[in-house]
Amino acid sequence: MSGGISIAIKTSFEVHTKEEQESIYLLYAEAHHAQDALLRLNTKKLAKQRAALLALHTFYKEELGTTNPASFGFLTPEQKIRLKNKLIYTYYLLYAQYQLDSTEKRGYTLKDHGDALALCVQRIKELDTTGVCGQATPFEDDLEANIALATQCLKFIGLTQIASWFVEKFEQFMDNHTGTLVKWMTEVNNSRLYWVWGGGMLDTIFTMLPDDFYNKLEAQANLTAPSPITGYMSWVLYYTRFGINLFLLWKHTFHPSKEECHIPRWERFLTQWNQRKFALLNDSIWGVANMVCFFWLNGGGMLGYAGNVVTVALLLMDLALATWRFCEEATKHNTKMEAIRRDKEKLASEIASLAFALENELNVFKKQELAAKLARMENELTTLNKMETKANFEWKYKKYSLMNDWAYALGLMVAFSIMCCFFFPPAAIVPATAMIIGVVGAALCFVLTVATAAVTGALEVAKSRESSKLERETCERLLGAFKKETDPNLKKQLYLDMKLALAESDYQQRAAQFQMAKLVRSVLIDALIPPLVFVSLIFMPLGIGLAVLAAGFALAVITNAIINRFEPKHEKLPYFNEADYAAFASNPDLKQLENTAAKEAKKGRNLFGLMKPSEDYTKLAEEPSNADLAVINTHDLGFC
């Protein structure tokens, strides 16, 4: 609705005006019990703030996933107010993203948003019905909390084990059939591209062998047998993806939904263009070029050389797109950092003013009110610092990934230029020299492809390991605060925070081990396929060679399935055990806390500690894409 509640999206609850804070509470009061599908926020204003909304939504959603109700009973009244403000603001951000995605018909994200909203409401109810610092909980509130918990449990009894994988895939296809279709096509195209470089390298090697070398002539014929299929795929896949993206761009711009009509047409176009521009440019140009190269610019002589020149030009375009993407992402990050910096400065100024007023205030009640407000401001400043640290951490690895893509685009352009003797026209060098240069260039193209995939996997491993290290450092800081703290309730909060940080550190450690296992398997498979194909085609009869290749393919599939069975899962949110706490409090040591956590986790683990069921743990850190279709990355190049 265009005339709905209008609230500026800022980095935290406290930096909003009093009127905006009241509007955020009003939204929660109206929306969380509502049975209708009414969209209560101003859609036009939301659309203009989508970049800030997505960044804040991601951060606060992750914070919601780690909000532990076991600590609610140890919070002071002031802490409960601060936490409720944060949860209410989280609800506002979740609702705003839900409304924006609903308006723009991104139906595949709505279930995830709905689950997050339900969890947020549940946490707020748990906070409201939890007693304060050991006070007895009223009977009615305790009954309401238990009924709510029982209702949540009953919803899933008998359902969680029934064809979960099939249901997930079916819902994914029904809710997001275009996005799923494009994802499948991208995976097929990536496999095609791998074979382009791997098969091209084998073809140049076969060319250098004598004609009477074992089954060389037959092997060459068999190697080129799939060429017509991959040739048609080289432009059909790009045209299909381009058509889907162009249709969605046209649909949202000129035939919007009823709610989407509140957003001006030019803004709708810019939104869709920003989401799809790299995919549209990549697929449209590569689709045309691959079709021309497949039908006309191929073979030996000047036509083949012209096709190679066109391909080099398009690889240069990929390098330009990679540079553009890097600059754009850097600008987005700097804009986000500038917004956080402004809000930090505003909060710091208000904190200084409140501290001065508190120091000079004589009225006891007024002094208490100022102290409470000062504590809320300081808590918000801590949240902003945490947000800034998290954003810088994420940008660090995103930047490395973009640089890896850029280096791949540059390296591939140079390697392909060497392979096709781009720098030397066909008549300028003797055939033997051209053949050697071609083998070197083809090998470089293949090695670059495998190395880039390996670096991408290594970055994931490094990110998980650093996350584990950071959580461990957080644990040590909390332990230092625990030893200095005298308030028993604050000590219990710190104890639960340490357990949560240790659990996250352990999860990231196991995630790094899992990612490393997948990386090693992937690199070995990618590196061994060409030698296996070479041996099967050159030294074996066709029937036996195909059987060997089929066995190798089956082994690749089976090893992937086996490794995926050991994907690590998050622990349940830690609960409070009085006996364990007493033992830890008497001798505060992280080793003891780790042993306690390991005993709790061991019940749910399988082989090597990698398999950990977590059906009752709600982790909301994963953020679905805010676009209908994923942007095509730099690896998604085309070559016929």
Walkthrough of the structure:
It is a single chain. This protein is mainly α. It folds into two domains: 18-166, no CATH class; 176-609, no CATH class. Helices cover 74% and strands 0% of the residues. The protein contains 18 helices and no strands. It is elongated. The model is unreliable at 149-175 and 606-640 (pLDDT under 50).
Largest sheet: none
Overall pLDDT metric: 82
Structural class of the secondary structure composition? mainly alpha
Anisotropy-based shape: elongated
**Beta-strand residue fraction:** under 5%
Q: Tally the helices: what do you get?
A: 18
The termini sit apart by: 49 Å
Spans of at least 5 consecutive residues whose pLDDT stays below 50 are: 149-175, 606-640
Give a count of the beta strands, DSSP E runs of length 2 or more.
Answer: 0
Encode the helix/strand succession as letters: HHHHHHHHHHHHHHHHHH
Task: Provide keyphrases for this structure.
640 residues, mainly alpha, 74% helix, elongated, disordered C terminus, membrane, transmembrane helix, transmembrane
List the helices and strands and how they pair.
Blueprint: H1 18-31, H2 43-48, H3 50-65, H4 77-103, H5 110-128, H6 139-154, H7 164-175, H8 177-208, H9 216-223, H10 227-254, H11 265-295, H12 301-360, H13 364-419, H14 431-484, H15 488-538, H16 542-564, H17 578-586, H18 590-602
Helix pairs in contact: 1-4, 3-4, 4-5, 7-8, 8-9, 8-10, 8-14, 10-11, 11-12, 12-13, 13-14, 14-15, 15-16
